[in-house]
Amino acid sequence: MEYEYGTGIPYEWTTGGKCSECGKPFEGMHLLSKTTCSPKCRKRRERRQKEAHAAWIGALHELQKIRDAIKRDEDIEHHRECLNRLKGEINDLLLLAKDTEAMERRAMLEARAQRRQ
To answer: Cα(36)–Cα(34) distance, rounded to whole angstroms?
Structure first.
C-alpha cells in the first residue's frame, strides 16, 4: 500500500471500472476510490444521495404517523395490509442491497418451495 506524500492517507491505483452515474468506463490508471467520471456526474451523484437521505427522513416521519393511527385503533386492518405490502418492498430493497440475512431467507424459502413440489 502506498501513501500520499505529506498526508499519511493511503491510496491505491487501479484500472477499469465505470462511472456510477452514467456508466461510462474509466480510462487509464485512476484511484481505486474513484466513482464518477466528471464533475457533472459527481454533482449528480451528490444530489441523488442528498435526495435519498431526505426520502429516508420523510419515510420515518410518515411511519410515525401510521404508528400514531394504530395506537388509536384507527383502521387497523387497512394499516396491516399496507404494512405487509411495505414489508415486501423492504425485503426487495434488502435483496437489492445484497443483505446477507435477506439473501439467506430467500434461499430458504425457495428451497422450501422446491421440496413441496
So the answer is: 6
Residue with cell 404494512: 83
Q: Is the dihedral of CA 69, 70, 72, 73 positive or negative?
A: positive
Amino acid making up residue 67: R
CA pair distance 91, 102, nearest whole angstrom: 7
Residue with cell 462511472: 19
Reported as a single tens digit per residue, the pLDDT across 25-77 is: 998 888 888 899 999 999 999 999 999 999 999 999 999 999 999 999 988 99
Q: How far apart are CA 21 and CA 45, in angstroms?
A: 7
Take residue 43 and report the three cell numbers written for it: 454533482
In what helix (H) or strand (E) does residue 11 lie, and over which residues does it extend? strand 10-11
